[in-house]
Amino acid sequence: MPPSELSTSSPDDIKPLEIKTIAAGVLTEVRIIEMVFPEQTNHYGTLFGGQALALMDKAAFIVASRYARRTVVTASSEKCNFHVPVRQGQLVELVARIVGTGKTSMTVDVDLWSEDLLTGDRRIGTRGRFVMVALDAHGSPTRVPTLVPTSGM
């Protein structure tokens, strides 16, 4: 099912108890929005770096799981750059994209955007790359679908 078909359904098109299956290898992006609360911040009122990395790892996990339709684990987190502080009360939008695949692994780029809830001003807060590995039922690495490049790549 092409991603364009995922968003064209109107509420009137959905039948109760209808199941639509999205196969492995189809979904290559996920977006998650979170609010930054006081317990996630340091004494300066900005998001702890570890909290930002945890949110980014979660987004990488979700997109890799949906792409592979397998259990996945984080094999590595690569270069993560912190550009601007994210303040308490701001929204963070995490955009995670599958950018490459190996035999059993997926490379995921994650952008963490900060957004002022009242003004709508957005800035890139953090960028990072994660490598996720798919596992079979026995916990051994297993094949993932090959990423098919789009014309935009």
Walk me through the structure.
The protein is α+β, with helices and mostly antiparallel strands and 153 residues long. The protein has a single domain (24-135), classed as Hotdog Thioesterase (Thiol Ester Dehydrase, Chain A, Roll), CATH 3.10.129. It is 16% helix and 36% strand. It contains two helices and five strands. The chain has helices at residues 3-6, 49-68, and strands at 29-35, 71-82, 91-101, 105-115, 122-135. Strands 1-3-4-5-2 form a five-stranded antiparallel beta sheet, with helices on one face. Strand 4 and strand 5 form a beta hairpin.
Beta strand %: 35-45%
What would you give as the CATH superfamily? Hotdog Thioesterase
Radius of gyration: 17 Å
Strand order of the largest sheet: 1-3-4-5-2
Main sheet, how many strands, which sense, barrel? Answer: 5 strands, antiparallel
Question: What's the total count of β strands?
Answer: 5
List low-pLDDT spans: none
Task: Give the rounded overall mean pLDDT.
Answer: 91
Question: What is the level 1 CATH name?
Answer: Alpha Beta
Order of helices and strands: HEHEEEE
Number of domains: 1
Say what the CATH topology is: Thiol Ester Dehydrase, Chain A
Assign an overall shape.
globular
**SS class:** alpha+beta
Record keyword descriptors for this entry.
single chain, 153 residues, alpha+beta, Thiol Ester Dehydrase, Chain A, 5-stranded antiparallel beta sheet, 2 helices, 5 strands, 16% helix, 36% strand
